[in-house]
Amino acid sequence: MTDRNQELFERAARVIPGGVNSPVRAFRAVGGTPRFVQRAQGAYFWDANGKKYIDYIGSWGPMILGHGNAAVLEAVQKAALDGFSFGAPTEREIELAEAILTHVPSMEMVRLVSSGTEAGMSALRLARGATGRSKIIKFEGCYHGHADALLVKAGSGLATFGNPTSAGVPPEVVQHTLVLEYNNIPQLEEAFALHGKELACLMIEPIAGNMNFVRASVPFMQRCRELCTQYGALLVFDEVMTGFRVALGSAQSVYAKSIPGFKPDITVLGKVIGGGMPLAAFGGPRAIMEQLAPTGPVYQAGTLSGNPVATACGLATLKEISKPGFWDALSARTRSLVDGLSAAAAHAGVPFSADCQGGMFGFFLLPELPHNYAKVMTSDSPRFNRLFHGLLDQGVYIAPALYEAGFVSAAHSETDIAETVAAAAAVFKQL
After folding, report:
1. Phi and psi for 215 in degrees, rounded to 5?
2. Which of 91-100, 171-180, 389-398 has the lowest mean pLDDT?
3. Given the residues 238, 265, 355, 416, the one annotated as active site
4. Terminus of the chain with fewer CB atoms < 10 Å: N or C?
5. Higher confidence at residue 225 or residue 170?
């Protein structure tokens, strides 16, 4: 039988760099041919050959309700009939902003944009503009979009600022970016002692989804907050992945349960707030946000920002996930998947560790959960590749990369979870 996926990939490679419009889709890390999606519904998608898969990437997080949710689809169809884009304000932008602020009280104002990268780079510019400082801290293994100043890796020592990790980024652009080890409190304290008065912000993924799933420890997060306050730097929470995905109040609400009064200064959101359409946001206290144009000197703009169809999709999604019982059910379903996979791995004698929060999960082929990027990198990559393809053959689609988190939706049933665990159990026996 003709492999339609292979045909499409070869055709795509002639006109699109690498045959894909985002690198991880190319299957370079795991080998093989990418699956070209034909359609999706609920917890499933079908590839170009017509094969059905249980989907655990959910467009990398946005599809928290599953694909084709009826309420969301109705809202989008109605909005599309009214117009695709106006380049002028709409009431729905206000409604979405109000909904976001209701659930994330650390923000008093929010600016809508079109992508997580755009939100992250704008938040960084805002932090620098609001503080009048240039230097920033980020952490190894945390991804904040592909803005030049954030595409950096750690230098040779604590006081060495970043080197670009992408061609086309001049060293001068990242000379003010300091990269530290995630969950390393002594290094964090030393960095602030050396550079604290020059730091505009500390940017962090509270749960690093591009290391698969690595939590910032509560003591580490508390120290981040204390040092930012002490030195006048802004704490920027990148919740593009975790926002409205790990809890209704996002990851910051999870940390607030353990750290009294905890809140970031600026929050970056994306994915779920757009419900699968291109939409992201960043927000914070009024005094900081009013530094943005047109009320302040920090410039930011976007032709499609607050797009009327995207805001309809996001607003309908937030309405659904705000319903009573939603989070208890989603969390329980995700936990059942993680526990089932862990038990199957243990039965097969495969080193395995896993964690989850809300509808987000991750696992490692390691006996213990890693707490930083260096530990994550010790995971067994060849064995993961065999696991990935074994699951793929059985109709289970997980991220085609060792270092990416997974996502469960409200559409995943107990049967879907059971089938996934059974498929994994069979593959584990062959690893």
Report:
1. -85, 145
2. 171-180
3. 238
4. N
5. 225
Say whether pLDDT at 160 is over 80: no
The H or E element spanning position 39 is strand 37-41
> Residue 158: is its pLDDT beyond 50?
no
Residue in 44, 53, 56, 143 annotated catalytic: 143
Q: Which residues, at least 6 apart from 275, have a Cβ–Cβ distance to it below 8 Å?
A: 62, 63, 65, 72, 313, 314, 316, 317
Closest-CA residue to 25 (of 394, 379, 397): 397
Residue 200 one-letter amino acid: A
Cβ-Cβ contacts under 8 Å for 212 (sequence gap 6 or more): 362, 363, 364, 376, 379, 402, 403, 404, 405
Structure confidence at residue 1 (pLDDT)? 72
82 is catalytic: no
- DSSP classification of residue 429: T
Largest CA distance in the chain: 65
pLDDT band for position 156 (cuts 50, 70, 90): very low
Report how far residue 74's alpha carbon sits from residue 323's, in angstroms, rounded to the nearest whole number. 18
Beta-carbon contacts of 45 under 8 Å, excluding residues fewer than 6 positions away, are: 37, 38, 39, 52, 53, 55, 67, 397
What residue type is 396 in one-letter code?
A: V
CA-to-CA separations, 50 to 25, 36, 38, 234, 411, in angstroms, rounded: 19, 10, 8, 49, 20
Check if 238 is active-site. Answer: yes
What pLDDT does residue 163 have?
A: 56
pLDDT in tens, 24-37: 898 988 999 999 99
Q: Which of 182, 271, 375, 397 is catalytic?
A: 271
Strands (E), 243-352: 266-269, 280-284
**Residue 252 DSSP one-character state:** H
What's this model's pTM, rounded to 2 decimal places? 0.95
